[in-house]
Write a structure and sequence with these properties.
By secondary structure, the protein is mainly alpha-helical. It has a single domain, classed as Orthogonal Bundle (Arc Repressor Mutant, subunit A), CATH 1.10.10. It contains 5 helices and 3 strands; from the N terminus they run ααβααββα. It has a 3-stranded antiparallel β-sheet with strand order 1-3-2. Strand 2 and strand 3 form a beta hairpin. The chain is globular and about 55 Å long. The N and C termini lie far apart (43 Å). The model has no long low-confidence stretch (mean pLDDT 88).
Length: 139
Amino acid sequence: MSSSTKQKAASPDKHDLEAMSLFRYELRKFLRVSEEISNAVGITTLQYQLLLHVRGFSGRKWATVGELAERLQAAPNGTAALVSRCEEAGLVARKTDKTDRRQVQVHLTAKGERCLLKLAAEHKSHYGSFGWIFEDQQE
């Protein structure tokens, strides 16, 4: 970024520091609980996140390895290896795109779907400290 496009960050005040501390604390608690939930059913948190992201794209039930890498903030080759491990565990299946044969879609298997829904239900109650996540769905 050039110096002309950089914006000087305002120094945080006490309120900002308290808010950032609380956010990091709630995030860390959530990540710890997520790890416990995932490990209890025999998968890693990364495997759970992959399952979640496969189903997390609006209007479809699949994702590409590149999209998953972006969502996981991981390298594509590492994500491909994670997909392979999930495939070996029977959680996902790769399918060639019918319109663009160069593209590979990652789909959940029936086992992966059951696993995701079970874990997502357990995780959902822990999103409470992040109230904004389900705001538009509350009535």
